[in-house]
Amino acid sequence: QIMTFVSMLAGAMFIAGWNVVSMAVEYYLYHRVYVSVPALAVKEKKGDKKGINDNDPENRADETVKKKPPPPTCFQKMFKPVLTLVNGWKTYFQQTCFRAGLGLSFLYMTFLGFDNIMVGFVYTQGLSELAVSLLVAAGALLGVAGTFVYPPLRKRVGLHRTGLISGTLHWSILILCVASVWAPGSPFDPLYYARNSNVTLPDVTLPPDVSLPPSASSNVSASVSNPTLPTMVDTTATATQGEEDVKPRPVWMYTSVALLMTGVTLGRIGLWMYDLTVTQLYQETVEETQRGVVFGVQNSLNFFMDMLHFLLVIILPAPETFGFLILLSFAFVVMAHMLYASYSRQVRGHLFHVNLLYCENCRKDFRHHKSFAKATSAEDPALQVPLRSRDGDVSTREFVTTV
Fold first, then answer.
1. Contacts for 58-65 with beta carbons within 8 Å, 24 or more apart?
2. C-alpha span between 101 and 340 (Å, rounded)
3. Are 260 and 266 in contact (CB under 8 A)?
4. Where do the H-state alpha helices sit in 174-231?
5. Sequential DSSP letters for 11-26
6. CA–CA separation, 276 vs 159, rounded Å?
7. Contact 221, 227 (CB under 8 A)
8. C-beta of residue 303 within 8 angstroms of C-beta of residue 310
9. 267: which of 62, 112, 150, 173 fits an S-S bond (Cβ 3.0–4.6 Å)?
């Protein structure tokens, strides 16, 4: 809004100063983390091995016996980038949490964010720059709020459940975006490309050195005399003494864009919490020597999905077809969280405790079922109670969690 109400120069200077201040704060926080964790100052060498005494003469003898690895062959030198790529993908898919990371990459194939595509679309729906900037700020604040909610929630319910909660919160809020496709004021037209012609020559801006043929110029004059307004604009203009009287858009026509931006803004809190969950999973489950490879493959997947959503908007550029992109984005979000749910079920053995759905009497009987005792993971030994055998004696072999 500084560029709108002050000047472009003032806005550019403010952004430059903000970046300099942010860089100083970021470097300070990096330094604090480096100082608070002394292990970061110790760099482990490849040849270092734990539990080996360097003063032992036998170990020195073993080092002399070891031979250098053979030099790479001509084939390995020629196809080294390809082999590195294949080995990196193999390492990525060997991780137990690769499905959670794959789900995270699916979230990059979405138009339900505050990128240039979404901002350009909401401008066509009549939102002002002030309204868009306030929504972007609100989304950023909710995302930061998610980072504050994440630590106590993880401490309370655990890392895997935090991912399930954040994912469920994310896709359930985005249902508002799906509803906006058919809400009043939506420009969605499934048969938009089935029309005879949706682009007229007066809508096309030609270079100064390009002239139209006589047949085309006659069509231009005819279309100018009988202009047709696009479906995305609900205004009527009549020329009266060189002035245009444009009627304001009715309030109910903003229902669609209001639902869309509400879902995108509120969904930030679940998205940021899910991002932190997957990053923490990688830190805890991936070996230190393989983290660089795994994170490199993860970033390549993220960028590929991001490129895919730009290609799709090239294929469907009209505001009337933006509803298809919204539905496709929601489908990718649901698939992303389904991948994480499958990973969580593989690790924990269940998604949620089925016994909590039963009444108290049925729950007591259900606890003695062998399949329940087998599927329930012993996450907290303090919460376990022993199962009783048919004779009433306490069985020491099978345990079941109470929560």
1. none
2. 8
3. no
4. 175-180, 214-225
5. HHHHHHHHHHHHHHHH
6. 10
7. no
8. no
9. 173
CA distances (Å), origin 330, targets 170, 274, 325, 351, 352: 10, 16, 9, 22, 24
State CA 183 to chain mean position distance. 25
CB 291 within 8 A of CB 282: yes
| 222: Cβ contacts below 8 Å, ≥ 6 apart | none
Cβ neighbours around 34 below 10 Å, total: 11
Q: How many CA atoms lie within 13 A of 66 on its CB side?
A: 9
* pLDDT class of 311 with cuts at 50, 70, 90: very high
CA gap 188, 121 in Å, rounded: 12
Q: Dihedral of the CA atoms 195, 201, 202, 207 (nearest 10)?
A: 140
The predicted model gives 378-393 an average pLDDT of 41
Query: Contact 166/246 with Cβ under 8 angstroms?
Result: no
Q: Hey, which residues does 240 pair with through a beta bridge?
A: 243
Cβ-Cβ contacts under 8 Å for 108 (sequence gap 6 or more): 302, 303, 305, 306, 309
Take residue 28 and report the two structure tokens written for it. Answer: 């300070």
What is the torsion angle, in degrees rounded to the nearest 10, for the CA atoms of residue 92, residue 93, residue 98 and residue 103?
100
Residue linked to tokens 């926080």: 29
Phi-psi region of 389 (alpha: psi -120 to 50; beta: other; left: phi over 0): beta
Let me know: does 257 contact 126? Beta carbons within 8 Å. yes
Q: Is the pTM of this model over 0.85?
A: no
pLDDT of residue 47: 52
What's the pLDDT tens digit per position in 68-100? 777 777 777 777 778 788 888 898 898 888 899
Residue 335 identity = M
Dist. CA 81–CA 71, nearest whole Å: 17
pLDDT given at position 397: 36
